[in-house]
């Protein structure tokens, strides 16, 4: 077989495997959210998918691994938002504005994942919990650094950058509790308003953004 054709086949195989993993995760998210982790079996996940249990075991070694994957996705999307903003050639105010929008959107579009983590973190393996916690601390460190940059530039006015970072993270992360897709405000409206709240929390000098 020609190397190019073999590479194409491997690429297709990887895409199919990723699609199957994605379908499995989506079904598990629905069931863990509806019934709870302990009340959901892999048989139930397989039934929701319309497959047999070996289909799941081909991609996940256990229900615990599936839970860890789901729980890590919320913070992973927030970290992706952070890492997409930090390299921007922009003022600290503009970076924080863009981060606010992307961070809020990441949380609200991962609403069920974050709810599952909040309820089920006690069921995570220690190594998985520590890995996810490290990701959260990494986010907090990067946000703190951005706030310090803004303070040094005279654009943000807060006395404690780390505390402000934790307050911002807490406010945005908690939105998974009250946000409703069919509520009074659309997703875009919530994103815009919360991004402005973040700037208000650090007394941002938006005239310099």
TrEMBL record:
<keyword id="KW-0678">Repressor</keyword>
<dbReference type="InterPro" id="IPR050109">
    <property type="entry name" value="HTH-type_TetR-like_transc_reg"/>
</dbReference>
<dbReference type="InterPro" id="IPR009057">
    <property type="entry name" value="Homeodomain-like_sf"/>
</dbReference>
<dbReference type="GO" id="GO:0003700">
    <property type="term" value="F:DNA-binding transcription factor activity"/>
</dbReference>
<feature type="domain" description="HTH tetR-type">
    <location>
        <begin position="18"/>
        <end position="78"/>
    </location>
</feature>
<dbReference type="InterPro" id="IPR001647">
    <property type="entry name" value="HTH_TetR"/>
</dbReference>
<dbReference type="InterPro" id="IPR023772">
    <property type="entry name" value="DNA-bd_HTH_TetR-type_CS"/>
</dbReference>
<keyword id="KW-0804">Transcription</keyword>
<feature type="DNA-binding region" description="H-T-H motif">
    <location>
        <begin position="41"/>
        <end position="60"/>
    </location>
</feature>
<dbReference type="InterPro" id="IPR041490">
    <property type="entry name" value="KstR2_TetR_C"/>
</dbReference>
<dbReference type="Pfam" id="PF00440">
    <property type="entry name" value="TetR_N"/>
</dbReference>
<dbReference type="InterPro" id="IPR036271">
    <property type="entry name" value="Tet_transcr_reg_TetR-rel_C_sf"/>
</dbReference>
<keyword id="KW-0805">Transcription regulation</keyword>
<keyword id="KW-0238">DNA-binding</keyword>
<dbReference type="GO" id="GO:0000976">
    <property type="term" value="F:transcription cis-regulatory region binding"/>
</dbReference>
<protein>
    <submittedName>
        <fullName>TetR/AcrR family transcriptional regulator</fullName>
    </submittedName>
</protein>
<dbReference type="Pfam" id="PF17932">
    <property type="entry name" value="TetR_C_24"/>
</dbReference>
């Amino acid at each position: 077989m020609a190397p190019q054709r073999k590479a194409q086949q491997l690429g297709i195989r990887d895409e199919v495997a990723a699609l199957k993993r994605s379908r499995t995760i989506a079904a598990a998210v629905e069931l863990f959210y509806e019934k709870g982790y302990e009340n959901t079996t892999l048989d139930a996940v397989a039934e929701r998918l319309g497959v047999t249990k070996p289909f799941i075991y081909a991609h996940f070694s256990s229900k615990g691994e599936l839970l860890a994957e789901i729980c890590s996705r919320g913070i992973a999307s927030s970290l992706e938002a952070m890492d997409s903003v930090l390299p921007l050639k922009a003022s600290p105010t503009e970076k924080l504005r863009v981060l606010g929008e992307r961070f809020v959107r990441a949380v609200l579009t991962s609403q069920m994942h974050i709810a599952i983590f909040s309820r089920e973190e006690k069921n995570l393996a220690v190594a998985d919990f520590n890995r996810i916690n490290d990701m959260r601390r990494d986010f907090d460190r990067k946000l703190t650094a951005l706030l310090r940059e803004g303070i040094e530039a005279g654009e943000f006015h807060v006395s404690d950058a780390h505390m402000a970072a934790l307050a911002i993270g807490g406010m945005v992360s908690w939105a998974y509790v009250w946000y409703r897709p069919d509520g009074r405000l659309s997703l875009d409206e919530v994103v815009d308003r919360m991004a402005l709240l973040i700037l208000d929390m650090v007394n941002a000098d938006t005239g310099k953004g």
